[in-house]
Batch of 2 targets.
Target 1
Amino acid sequence: MAKRTTAAHLAALSLDPSASAPLYRQLYFAIREAILAGRIQPGTRLPSTRTLARDLDLSRNTAVAAYEQLLAEGYLDGRVGAGSYVSKVLPEALLHARRSPTSSPENPAAEPKLSRRGAMLARLQSAQGLPPKAFSLGLPELAGFPFEDWARLLARRWRRPPSDFLVGVDPRGYRPLREALAHYLGAARAVSCDPDQILIVSGAQQALDLVARALIDPGDRVWVEEPGFSGTWSALLAAGAALTPVPLDEEGISVDKGRTLAPDARLICVSPSHQYPLGTTMTLRRRLELLDWAAAADAFVLEDDYDSEYRYAGRPLAAMQGLDEKGRIIYVGSFSKVMFPGLRIGYMVAPKALIEPFLAIRRLVDSHPSSIAQAALADFIADGYLTSHIRRMRSLYAERQAILLDFATSILGDRITLRPDDAGMHLVGYLPPNTDDAALSRRAATHDVVVPPLSAFYRGPAQHKGLLFGYAGVADKEIGRAVARLDAAFQDD
């Protein structure tokens, strides 16, 4: 009876000749699963390879290969002249890895016990890695990047790489890259630094993480802009910081409100050249006020200069870091928006007193980004490719902003208010105060349009409702179609 039952089980196996996995692997997995699920009991004799091949309409070699794999892994025992039997001691039992009856898709195993910090980090949400769609935030124009030039620079560096490129470079980063950056930032952003103050990191998010690890103890107060960037919040929360949302006015972050809410703050996080997400530019008076307060309070200022290269009226504004005479500002930037996000190279310019602590912590986390990519990037900057690319993209993005404004006005009318911005890669579309912008954003997603709700950028009650439109990476001809799909989302209400 057992033999007939087993033969029936195996004869009923379903294999797919069109699948990418070879038939012998499909057969191996099917028999293995039947054994582990208990449908074929330990000690049971299996049909001969000839019989199984005939029942399943397979070549005998396929059946032999599957049995041999099961024998090699200990699922079967082979007996001379007596056939193949299911092992009485399965590999999972030996390894204490056999599936528990309480663990199944219908009854999952208990969640692992995480540390309080681990549980908090697991709850933090991130949009990174999502496929790009119309109006995704932070996405540059990728088709316009000079990939042929970039590939040539990479190939040149790979052709005969020095041995230190293959072993590792200075954890500060490749020195010629730091030298090129010091020159570029000084000319383009009025950043005052020498190459030894620059630390090359794997994107701006790692810089935020290093700053938080070095300067924040659990419970320390940190000012964050309200509304602000959730990526900044996540890095700070991971370090145990107590975030203090500080409102903005027409001049930028309110130092008076911050002083009242958290006079003992250890760190202030701002985006003064083009505030994220509202686009406010911090006035000179407010910048000097913030620097004076930070120096008096023995606090540091993290300046996130995320997209200020893209200014469409006049030259890019000078960074606040150039005003710092007391070593209070940590300046952070990356190449994700000026080149492409997958490059994963960013930088931080730190006061000299903080460089060694940052390096010590960095060595424990991630010694350096790709040496070859750093060298190619140094060439890309020094040979003028970066400046040329930014100039082309600045013109392109200004045109796309204008196209978005035209379509929004003609299609969406007075249901949403978009105004031109002299800088950046996104616009805020303001909605009436009683609008559920989160619900509208979800409806838009069903129409293949990504427009995050402005309310999601507030830690407290949202003072404004709206949607964010990242226009830089959307092709001209797609902008109108995407706005039309958003119009359909409005009508779904």
Target 2
Amino acid sequence: MNKTIFFLLLFLLSFIKSYAVVNYPRANDWTIHLARSLSKDIFELNGVPYLQPMVEVVNTTANARFFSSAFVPYTKNNFYIKLSVNGMLGFVPDSKKEYSPSLPIEPYDPENLATLVSKLSPYITIDYSSYPPKVNVRDTAGLIYMAFKLLMYDGVRKQKLQIPASAPTILGEGKKSLYFNRDTIRSLLNENPIFPLLPENLRDTIFKSIENFPENFDLPQGLNIQKIIAGMPQIEIGSLFGTELTLRYVPRIDLGSNIGKFTFWGIGLKHSLSQYIREPFVDFAIQIAYQGTNLQNTIGVTNAKLNANANFFNANFHFSKKLSKVFELFSGISYEYIHINTDFTYYLPITVQYQLGLIWLDDNGTPDNFSDDFFRKNPELGYNGDPFGSMNKNVIVNDKNLKLSVGFIINLGNFSSYFDYNFGKIDILSFGILYNFDLTKNK
């Protein structure tokens, strides 16, 4: 009986041990600096194209619904106010769902030692008066990372390091990783022609940095976002010499954890061109509009932050035809210019922090599913164990777009409803309900 209890306890202890969370010892500062430098370049090469499509799709969707009917009263100056509530549904194109990931590499000619030395010159000085030449290190962290980028180039060139052909953006679906096998990196290091020239203590530092270096750098996961929904109120005030003023504004609203908090404002002027033609077959007008937006979001367990400011210029020519008192068709073509200024604030990926021993897990956590208990036990980390703080990246994007819009209007007295579809880089379905306060008629 005692033997049975003993073996049962032994089995339970081994079972518990096999499922206990394994935590890593804290890596040395050189390894952490190397991981931060690599993480920064990986983010700028991959994190930016991962997030930027969402910024572009959200802003382009919000820039729709500036016009419907081209008719503006022009025989006399009328005073009216049109209040409308509008909704826009942007369809995420396949081109915004994937990007080509890349590694931070430093190309060089392995047959040209002088070129290789020149790439290392910002970090070392070489005394050629002695044999073998004496190497003095000026920037250890910079040299280690430059050596690492040279190794990445060797790995890609020799096909020892594989890069995924594609990875999902935040709008796409799935997850990909970059894998850095330590044995492969060691072999690449030994094969590099400049490595034997470095001082022995520096070679030891580089080897130790690689020894604890994370093997997996997860690329961000796609959230499978197929559509972007936006809504906004709009005011149209007219008319003066066939000209109408359009105003729109939405205070900061929360579009959910995937999209973030969004606010925008816009102003436009529409001028009737059909007023200059006697008995025109259709009404047609031109409009210029300007819109500003701001998008903010906090992403992932490290609370990485995105802050994007965008400005739109829109010039369009549109026309409409009343087929009856109730039904009206309209169409138009728009030229859009967008300027997006995005600030990214981010940290080491949480799985990298785990592999570096900067954070640890309790028995309820795994590297892919960090428990609430872990975060409650470590509030001083601010959900982030990177001892050197945040990293930052600013991205400016300028883009142009031609958009064709077709739609129809249903007029019922002072009420109108309209639907249109916009064909461009991003297809958008928009709709709205409008009420016309004709103040001239009431006098």
